[in-house]
Design goal:
Two copies of one chain form a homodimer.
Chain A (H helix, E strand, L loop, with lengths): L4 E5 L4 H13 L5 E4 L8 H6 L4 H5 L2 E3 L2 H5 L4 E5 L9 E3 L1 H13 L4 E5 L8 H4 L4 E3 L11 H14 L7 E3 L9 H17 L6 H17 L4 H23 L1
Parallel strand pairs in A: 1-2, 1-6, 2-3, 4-6, 4-7, 5-7
Chain lengths: 245, 245
């Protein structure tokens, strides 16, 4: 699947092209296009900020108009901070990423269009885009160009990311089986009974239930269940030794 | 709801504290804490990069140890790029944001912990966190500290953002009613019949169905439906004028 091209229009600062390239590389984008850059090109500041993604800068293509730059693309979404008097579908970054992914999966050539630092995109440029993207921010909003590219790149990668929302590092053990846990519970309760901790008898059941719940909630791995049993053995041994001396 | 504090441990570059503050402001975070900063403080570079969020820097609190800095917090999630030999729940940024939001809604004091530029977080620091967060990236990963804060701030704001995934700017008109559309269809088809465009008769129904589908798919507003009817009137008038001359 070909990721979307990143098209920067009328960019003024080389730093922003550089940090855009670096953001692209972080999230697997590679095709960079500049429309009428308002700085010298190639650009030293861009090179410095692009650290590690110099290949993206080296392969960047330059056009003088949006019409030429956008000509080969079949789906183009434009980021815009301000409300425009243009009837377009307005996407959240996540919805834009999903739409671009689906189109790219069907072989459609896609692109993300970003305006210049000060003026943003012109209405002529917007008029040949399929829709716009607005990044949600607080009322104070000062996202720069590199940050906007970063967030869209992040959403692009995330749209295909299959990492579970929450997981436990698996090389450090697997969740304990119920059998491991019951062995642990019974071991612990036997020693607590021996120590007269589960007292008085009429409260014993409730105390046991609370202790089991506390241990269950911690989601132990098999290794951790063994560690706790080892700690119990050590504590009990120490206690007897204490009594002897 | 109190947003999570942002805690930066052993930060080396003022620029990164400044861009972290700016990222925080963009997404409605305000509480900044530094653990043992490895630069002078207050810091000129931080001030420059923070543009517009100087209040966050001015109110930043400094501690020398993670134990002191984290003491008041009840839920702390730490970002870490590298795999650690520590059994912790690993969250995607979105899952972390959801967990922090839910906790904050219940009055729990929450924080996000970020390590230094070179060494990341120490195992001692991680050992007092509730879980870790890993930002998905391509194999080339060079997210800096400011960018990591930006992405987590973005997910925090997004977790409560109710913007529809895709919408049409509503002040520019509401979707055309079926009545508006049927009037448009019939107007257009009448004129196309008059112009002998819907020919031959046995193909008429298919042609009409295709034209209607094409118009429906464009999701017209009421104003756009009127605009198209105006265009039809103008084109027809012009045609007759053309015939006359």
């Amino acid at each position: 699947m070909t990721p979307p091209a990143v098209i920067l229009s009328h960019t003024q600062m080389g730093e922003n092209v550089g940090s855009a390239a670096r953001a692209m590389k972080n999230f697997g984008l590679s095709e960079l296009i500049l429309i009428a850059p308002m700085m010298e090109w190639p650009n030293d500041r861009a090179q410095i900020l692009a650290s590690g993604s110099a290949d993206i800068l080296a392969n960047a293509r330059i056009y003088q108009t949006a019409e030429e730059a956008l000509a080969p693309f079949q789906l183009v979404l434009a980021t815009t901070a301000r409300d425009r008097d243009v009837v377009k579908q307005v996407h959240t970054p996540a919805a834009a990423a999903a739409r671009l992914r689906q189109a790219a999966a069907e072989g459609v050539r896609t692109a993300l269009l970003f305006g210049g630092e000060r003026a943003g995109l012109g209405n002529d440029e917007l008029s040949i885009c399929d829709g716009v993207i607005t990044i949600p921010t607080s009322e104070f909003s000062s996202l720069n160009l590199g940050q906007a590219v970063l967030l869209l790149g992040y959403e692009w990668l995330k749209a295909a990311d299959t990492t579970p929302a929450v997981r436990i590092r698996s090389h450090l053990g697997v969740p304990a089986t119920r059998g491991d846990l019951v062995d642990l519970f019974e071991h612990l309760e036997r020693e607590l009974d021996a120590a007269n901790y589960l007292f008085p008898p009429e409260k014993r059941e409730t105390m046991v239930r609370n202790i089991r719940a506390m241990i269950l909630r911690s989601g132990l791995t098999d290794q951790q269940a063994r560690t706790i049993r080892g700690m119990i053995v050590a504590l009990v041994r120490n206690k007897y030794r204490g009594h002897k001396t």
